[in-house]
Design the sequence.
């Protein structure tokens, strides 16, 4: 059985994502695949992405992957990265196209900034480089990551969610924008954890060990209000997970 499947639809930074996951989960079976059946059989699914969202969705459909991605988002630990975050939403200004409609909200383009940063540099679109990420939700994937850690971004569009309770982190450029969302078994980020050194590798390791409390035998159950207060846990008792490295500092140095 595949532990982690990375979705290959021709538009993602696949090699970097795969290498980063192999660093943090050397005992796991990790595959990069465009086979819907492998995605359906995997324990966890990662959807990376870069480029234009219309192209990404077109390639997803051309390879017959939309259904398998929707099933994964409905029923197993799911990580979206960059375009893998944006495509989860209902609609995008980029090409004025519908997204997958899994999460409520829209994808909008940054207005050309007329401001400068703290060092006096004029801000440009795309937003490219390191930026501070402010965690707004207590979530297992943030475990061990400082609340003001910096992550690496490359994007011209950002998500505007209609579900404020799903916002897991924000950044600013100079407009404050949502850069991470979490709902049930889904965690998705605008930044690139695979390029974000120790903080990014820690997030990936947390994903590998994450067991959403609402995720049971491949299905998402309805949560009561009491359940929702403690929706997620880390599956530290999993023998496979416990064999993963507990520190990412050396790996971050080697991978940087």
Sequence:
């Amino acid at each position: 059985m595949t532990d982690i499947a990375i979705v290959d639809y021709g538009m993602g930074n696949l090699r970097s994502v795969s290498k980063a996951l192999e660093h943090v989960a050397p005992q796991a079976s990790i595959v990069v695949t465009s086979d819907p059946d492998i995605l359906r059989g995997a324990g966890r699914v990662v959807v990376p992405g870069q480029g234009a969202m219309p192209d990404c969705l077109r390639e997803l459909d051309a390879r017959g992957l939309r259904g398998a991605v929707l099933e994964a988002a409905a029923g197993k630990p799911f990580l979206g990265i960059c375009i893998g975050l944006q495509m989860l939403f209902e609609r995008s200004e980029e090409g004025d196209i519908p997204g997958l409609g899994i999460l409520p909200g829209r994808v909008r383009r940054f207005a050309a900034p007329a401001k400068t940063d703290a060092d006096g540099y004029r801000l440009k679109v795309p937003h490219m480089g390191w930026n501070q990420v402010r965690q707004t939700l207590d979530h297992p994937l943030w475990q061990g990551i400082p609340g003001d850690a910096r992550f690496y971004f490359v994007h011209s569009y950002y998500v505007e969610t209609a579900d404020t309770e799903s916002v897991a982190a924000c950044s600013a450029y100079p407009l404050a924008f949502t850069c991470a969302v979490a709902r049930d078994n889904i965690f998705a980020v605008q930044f690139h954890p695979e390029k974000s050194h120790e903080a990014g590798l820690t997030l990936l390791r947390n994903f590998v060990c994450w067991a959403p409390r609402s995720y049971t035998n491949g299905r998402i159950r309805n949560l009561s209000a009491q359940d929702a207060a403690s929706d997620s846990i880390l599956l530290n008792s999993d023998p496979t997970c416990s064999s993963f490295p507990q520190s990412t500092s050396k790996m971050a140095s080697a991978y940087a």
Summary: Residues 215-256 have pLDDT under 50 and may be disordered. The two ends are 30 Å apart (CA to CA).
